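FW: tagging you since you asked about this chain on Friday. Here's the raw sequence from the shared folder, copied in full. Didn't touch anything.
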Amino acid sequence: MPNTQRAPHDYEALRHHALTLRRAGLSRRHIRDRLSLPLTDAALTSLLEGEPPPDWTRRPNAKDDLRAKARELRKQGRTYNEIVAELGVAKSSVSLWVRDLPKPKRSREAMHRMSEARWAPYREARDRTIEETKAEAFNEIGKLSDRELFLIGVGLYWAEGSKSKPHCRRERVVFINSDPGMVKTYLAWLALLGVERERLRFAVMIHESADVAAAERYWADLAGTDLANMCKTTLKKHNPKTVRKNVGEGYRGCLVIKVLQSADLYRRIEGWWSGIVTGPSEPTATGASGMV
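HL: got it, structure written out here
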């Protein structure tokens, strides 16, 4: 029997000595005692590298198959949480099994999927709250009276319609908008005012890179007029340097609605708006209820 109480003086001799003890069936603690050196766990692991532990040191219930699977998943780039979810083991076990492996680098697509999975429940809850709030607000409106539609139309036109300027007097009623709801409300307002359909002229204004024909059909149907009666479409030149967000099938440009012989109507709109903004500014108790 070799004298195992004397420690070798160089690394190779020390490693040979440690491996001999390991192959003889000694545990790590026994090997450290035999070498009689203050070795750290890392130093002893280095000496025993490549030499498997003896069978008797293995725990009877050790999850070797799960450990091997965990290491394989880690090499595939999976996170601790993903490995835990797939194998159904404790995170501490996964950390013990794979902590010597390099941390996986995540691609942009993988990080996006992780972010989506993490925030999806919050977005769903937010979307439900948004829809519930909109539905509650929708029910608060109810059926509009003629006077309510009249006042809404005045404000709508003054916000989105053309206006005469002191330096350029143009008393014409021209309304341009891309929102279908705004357009339908404006047309309902004109009908309330008694503006004849024969006095209305419609035209589309859209970028030349869009589906012009489809947009013309869409606006003609919404305005309730024949496509042949639409005025010439105004095409906006496409600028490749400009990154537009209003693209795709949902982009239909704007609808221009002109009222012929509308100087008197325009003057009335100016007067109506002046009456609204210079009238009482404090709402009554009845009018303010439920509108916050």
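FW: Residues 108-141 form the longest helix (34 residues).
HL: agreed, and The beta strands are 173-177, 200-207, 234-236, 254-259.
FW: great, closing this out.
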